[in-house]
Structure formats: structure tokens, C-alpha cells
UniProtKB/TrEMBL annotation:
GO terms assigned for molecular function: ATP binding; ATP hydrolysis activity
One Pfam family recorded for the sequence: ABC_tran
PANTHER family attached to this UniProt entry: IRON TRANSPORT SYSTEM ATP-BINDING PROTEIN HI_0361-RELATED, METAL TRANSPORT SYSTEM ATP-BINDING PROTEIN TM_0124-RELATED
GO BP annotations, alphabetical order: zinc ion transport
This protein's name: ABC transporter
NCBIfam families assigned to the protein according to its UniProt record, in alphabetical order: AztA (NF040873)
Length: 254
């Protein structure tokens, strides 16, 4: 049985850039072992929320509780457009970076470490490409490399930002199986997604954002036509240059 204690707690949390809020007044909890989709229109604040959780952005107001998790416990996969693929590194070495927190950046891989890398490559079907430069890979192959690296991080909390963007159908299916495996293992997985059918099929719970919480709970109750329309309206009307505002805390749970 999976624990139900919260992994993440949001307490009237506002995040942004400079002093301008990008996502604001988020209150709610993510249970340990939960598989949660984060959805919303472009500009709804999905990436901002993930960056706040991983510590790349500090709260403008409110707070975020990680229930004792440290950076070592968190694996974060940003959008592929934010990743520089021009660096001359092989597939094997890129995946091996997932072990750095365990062995240190200055230590070489021992035989056990190499076995772990080969095992991760086997899981994502890329053993034959181990020596190829990452810059020569297709979008789907490169995303498999990044998921293999996540496997080696062995994290309790996994954050994925648009992990299926510009990825072929076969790769999407394989990566979703990996996500579902992490869920079965009791890891907490949050994924920012835009394909609502993927969310309805594979994610039991959903947070619908429009710079603020529109709905949060069981996926079928969240992804209603009315909620989706409301999220578009709020996002389109949002003033990106508005100052941080004060609002009484509203807790979401279902």
C-alpha cells in the first residue's frame, strides 16, 4: 500500500520573474506516490510551477513544503528546447550523468556504475547507440536518453516538463510505460502535458492551471469542457505585469 502523506505542500504560493507573478496563490497538496498531470493553455504557468518546486525560482509570496525532500531526492526534466544538444558528449556519458549525485562529478565510473548505465540504456532500447554523439539523435532517441538518465537518478520525486513534445508515437508509448512503472514503485511523478487524451488515459489526477488553480482532483472531474474553457479565458485575460496581489488562502483537495 502506498503512503498517502503529502510529498508537496503549496501554501498560497506565488511564483514569477522579477516581481511579476506567473502563477499565483496556489494552495494544495500532492500525496506521496501520486501520478499528477499539470495541464493548461500555453502561458498558464505549468513550467513556472515545476521550476519553483525544483528550486530554480524562489516564491514571491507564500511557501512550498517539500516534506523533507532534498535536491538529491528530486529529478527534473525540463523542456527539450531548454537543453543544449551541441555539447560533444556520447549517449553513454550523457546517461551516466544520472549517477553524478551518487559518485561525484570527479570520480570515474566503476564496473558497477557502467552496468547501471548499460541497464538503463537497455530499458529505453538504446544500447546500440551508446557511443553515438547525442547531437546526432532524433528527437525521440534523445528523449529516451534523458529518461535513461532519470532512471539512474533513482529519485523519489520526478518532475517532467512536456516530456512528449516532438516525440514519435512509439517513443511516447514506451516512456509512458516508464512513468507508470515509477508510479507503481511509489515515486511521486508530476508531468506538465498538453495532450488531454494522454492525460485522461494515463493520469489519475490532474491540476488544471491558468496562472492560478482552475480545478484540481480526479482527472475526469477536472477536464470538463467548462473548466477547460474557463482556463483559456483566465489565461488570455491575465496581466503579466501585474504586481503581487493578496488573496485569502483557498485549499484544493479531492
Amino acid at each position: 500500500m502506498k503512503a498517502t502523506a503529502p510529498t508537496l505542500g503549496f501554501h498560497n504560493l506565488t511564483l514569477g520573474y522579477g516581481r511579476h507573478p506567473a502563477v499565483h496563490h496556489i494552495t494544495g497538496e500532492v500525496a506521496r506516490g501520486e501520478l499528477l498531470a499539470i495541464v493548461g493553455p500555453n502561458g498558464a504557468g505549468k513550467s513556472t510551477l515545476l521550476k519553483g518546486i525544483v528550486g530554480e525560482l524562489k516564491p514571491l509570496s507564500g511557501r512550498l513544503d517539500l516534506d523533507g525532500l532534498t535536491k538529491r531526492d528530486i529529478a527534473y526534466l525540463p523542456q527539450v528546447i531548454e537543453i543544449d544538444r551541441s555539447f560533444p558528449i556520447s549517449v553513454f556519458d550523457c546517461v551516466a550523468m544520472g549517477l553524478w549525485r551518487q559518485i561525484g562529478a570527479l570520480r570515474g565510473l566503476d564496473a558497477r556504475g557502467r552496468d547501471h548505465v548499460i541497464g538503463a540504456l537497455g530499458t529505453v532500447g538504446l544500447i546500440e547507440l551508446a557511443d553515438r554523439p547525442v547531437g546526432t539523435l532524433s528527437g525521440g532517441q534523445f528523449q529516451r536518453v534523458l529518461f535513461a538518465r532519470l532512471l539512474l537518478q533513482d529519485a523519489k520525486l520526478i518532475l517532467l516538463d512536456e516530456p512528449f513534445r516532438a516525440v514519435d508515437t512509439k517513443t511516447v508509448a514506451d516512456l509512458i510505460r516508464l512513468i507508470e512503472r515509477w508510479h507503481r514503485e511509489g515515486r511521486t511523478v508530476l508531468a506538465a502535458l498538453h495532450d488531454m487524451e494522454q492525460v485522461r488515459t494515463h493520469f489519475p489526477r490532474t491540476l488544471l492551471l491558468a496562472r492560478e488553480v482552475v480545478a484540481w482532483g480526479e482527472t475526469r472531474a477536472v477536464l470538463t469542457p467548462a473548466n477547460l474553457a474557463k482556463s483559456r479565458e483566465i489565461t488570455e485575460a491575465f496581466d503579466a505585469h501585474a504586481p503581487v496581489c493578496e488573496r485569502e488562502e483557498t485549499r484544493w483537495s479531492a
